[in-house]
Amino acid sequence: MVEINLRGPAKNALGSEMLSWVLERLQAAHGEPVLLTGSRDAFSAGLNLKEVASLDPAGMEGYLRLLERCMAAVYLHPAPVVAAIEGHAIAGGCVLAACCDHRVATTDGRVRIGLNEVALGVRYPPRVLHIVRDRVPRPAHEMVLLGAGLFPPSEARAHGLVDELAEDALGVARARLATLAAHPREAYAATKRAMRGATDADLAPDEAEDRWLRESVPVWTSKAVKERVLAVLKK
Question: Residue 59 and residue 221: Cα distance in Å, rounded?
Answer without folding.
Answer: 10
